Amino acid sequence: MLNWWDEALWDTCSLITLDLLVQWDAGFREHVGAPRCVAVSLSDDNLRPDTAGRLTTLVGPVVEPPDLLTTVGFLRTADLPRAVAEVDRVVYVTAAHHRLAVVTADRKLARAIAARHQRVGNMALILKELVTSRAMAAAACDSALARLAAQQEFLLPPSGPQGWTGLRSYRFP
After folding, report:
1. Can you give the pTM of this predicted structure?
2. Which end of the chain is flanked by fewer CB atoms within 10 Å, N or C?
3. Dihedral sign (CA 137, 141, 144, 146)
4. Are 99 and 81 in contact (CB under 8 A)?
């Protein structure tokens, strides 16, 4: 079964989270297929070399951004705050150009993608859908969220419960 995130463009932070989840449970890879990304997400500027090495075997197609003129056009009409990272601007333009859904950890980027009426979500929503569809056990989800939280990689608001209980009512963006 194809999920919305199987053909989505993934941002760098989401790829890093995916890398952690796959390191802890190699079987998690079957839930995400071969995520798409932009080449800059795999660059030394954004990833440690060991992470980049693992991700190059995990990701699927690298999606090319549009030409410079098209990029400028998308950025002129975008409602992207200045605080959005340069790599996320590349993700935005590429997703907008190719009309791709986006998996992102950045709420500002998510809002800009949603404003274009394109599907957007994050790793927490992917976990939620996996549990809801019974593709993943709630206990496995609890374990993944707890391990991420222990490393200060919060998918859910840090002040709330870090497990299926907190995820059930979670919304993004």
Report:
1. 0.93
2. N
3. negative
4. no
Tokens 């394109």 belong to 118
Helix (H, G, I), strand (E, B) or coil at 65: coil
Average pLDDT, whole number, for the chain? 93
- Give the Å distances, CA to CA, from 9 to 5, 12, 47, 86, 95: 8, 10, 17, 16, 7
Task: Please report, in angstroms and rounded to a whole number, the separation of the first and last CA atoms in the chain.
Answer: 25
- Token pair 């959005």 in the structure block, residue: 84
DSSP β-bridge partners for residue 121 = 103
One CATH from 3.40.50.1010, 1.10.150.130, 1.10.620.20, 3.10.20.580 for 4-121: 3.40.50.1010
d(CA 38, CA 158) in angstroms, rounded, equals 29
Convert the pLDDT of each residue in 105-140 to its tens digit.
Answer: 999 999 999 999 999 999 999 999 999 999 999 999
